[in-house]
Each structure stands twice: as C-alpha cells, then as structure tokens.
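Colleagues,

For the teaching module next term, I've prepared a clean inverse folding example: a structure given as tokens, and then the sequence designed for it. I'd like students to try predicting residues themselves before seeing the answer, so please don't circulate the second half yet.
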C-alpha cells in the first residue's frame, strides 16, 4: 500500500497515512484531528527528485545499460 502525505482542508492538519488507492478515491481517509474527508495531497518529493539531478555517480553498467541512465 502506498503512503500518502495528506493535508486537511479544514484544520490544515498534515499527516501521513498508509492506505489503499481505492480508500483515497472513495474518501475513506479521514483527518485524524477533525475527521474531515476534505483532504489534499501534499507532494514533498519534488525537492528530492531535483537533488538527484546533479552529476551523480556513474552508471555501474556503463556501456551495457542501453542508455537508460543517460550515458
Ligand atoms: Zn482536519
């Protein structure tokens, strides 16, 4: 099951919850603070993805990766 970073639209409580995708689609996830189902997803992974873009370590399969790593 995926983890969701969610934020309550009503009380602005941010929380992390593990739930099925169908639970989120059917609004079965509730705010632990006020019980509201009006939740917004919080995406915190953007900065992590960007930090990985810098000149990283060389592909361990250099020459045999088929260009999947950009080399
Ligand atoms: Zn709330």
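(Answer key — instructors only)
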């Amino acid at each position: 099951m995926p983890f969701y970073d969610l934020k309550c639209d009503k009380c602005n409580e941010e929380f992390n919850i593990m739930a099925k995708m169908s639970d989120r689609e059917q609004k079965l996830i509730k705010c632990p603070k006020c019980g509201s189902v009006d939740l917004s997803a919080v995406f915190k992974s953007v900065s992590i993805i960007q930090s990985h873009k810098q000149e990283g370590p060389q592909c361990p399969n250099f020459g045999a990766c088929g260009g999947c790593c950009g080399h």
